[in-house]
Amino acid sequence: MVTLWRGDELLEAEAWDIGFRRIEIADGLLRLNGKPLLIRGVNRHEHHHLRGQVVTEADMVQDILLMKQNNFNAVRCSHYPNAPRWYELCNRYGLYVVDEANIETHGMVPMNRLSDDPAWLPAFSARVTRMVQSNRNHPCIIIWSLGNESGGGGNHEALYHWLKRNDPSRPVQYEGGGADTTATDIICPMYARVERDQPIPAVPKWGSKMDQPAR
């Protein structure tokens, strides 16, 4: 319970669910409280098939229950932070969350046109810092994501290091740079081909990254 007082007058009181857990990458594995964590995840857009982006709490609960019924244990907020109530429900129902910054340059050519341009760093930074400052107290969030399909460049690398300084308690992922980027703790290839659906050492490009888990 968080309370705000003016002298002896109670101005505001807010109840908040909290949780204690340790998430880390060790020996090439994502670990929760020291034990390997197998992610069975799904992407979710904040969308209703009839009302578009008008999503009620009942809709959110229905989505969570469908995930649970199909043995999913994690969800990626693709490709933007969600409504505050969503995280509260994930805390309550026990669903791991990858919270993703609202950064996407899909369709730009080249893909790193903005992500490698220092002029765009303030815009990139605003979206990442707002996400973290708004949602960092939710224990359901186990990974921060630097966005989606934005190429790879200095802006992502700068924000990766900002995140590691300001929240060392969570890993950071970003798919845009593949295994060549230093802006991720997790190798998470997008739409990996069948020939790459194999242990990481069999893929030469990723062979030197074995201390990173693969998604």
Automatic annotation (TrEMBL):
<dbReference type="GO" id="GO:0009341">
    <property type="term" value="C:beta-galactosidase complex"/>
</dbReference>
<dbReference type="InterPro" id="IPR050347">
    <property type="entry name" value="Bact_Beta-galactosidase"/>
</dbReference>
<feature type="domain" description="Glycoside hydrolase family 2 catalytic">
    <location>
        <begin position="23"/>
        <end position="206"/>
    </location>
</feature>
<dbReference type="GO" id="GO:0004565">
    <property type="term" value="F:beta-galactosidase activity"/>
</dbReference>
<dbReference type="InterPro" id="IPR017853">
    <property type="entry name" value="GH"/>
</dbReference>
<keyword id="KW-0326">Glycosidase</keyword>
<dbReference type="Pfam" id="PF02836">
    <property type="entry name" value="Glyco_hydro_2_C"/>
</dbReference>
<dbReference type="GO" id="GO:0005990">
    <property type="term" value="P:lactose catabolic process"/>
</dbReference>
<dbReference type="InterPro" id="IPR023230">
    <property type="entry name" value="Glyco_hydro_2_CS"/>
</dbReference>
<protein>
    <recommendedName>
        <fullName>beta-galactosidase</fullName>
        <ecNumber>3.2.1.23</ecNumber>
    </recommendedName>
</protein>
<dbReference type="InterPro" id="IPR023232">
    <property type="entry name" value="Glyco_hydro_2_AS"/>
</dbReference>
<keyword id="KW-0378">Hydrolase</keyword>
<dbReference type="InterPro" id="IPR006103">
    <property type="entry name" value="Glyco_hydro_2_cat"/>
</dbReference>
<dbReference type="InterPro" id="IPR006101">
    <property type="entry name" value="Glyco_hydro_2"/>
</dbReference>
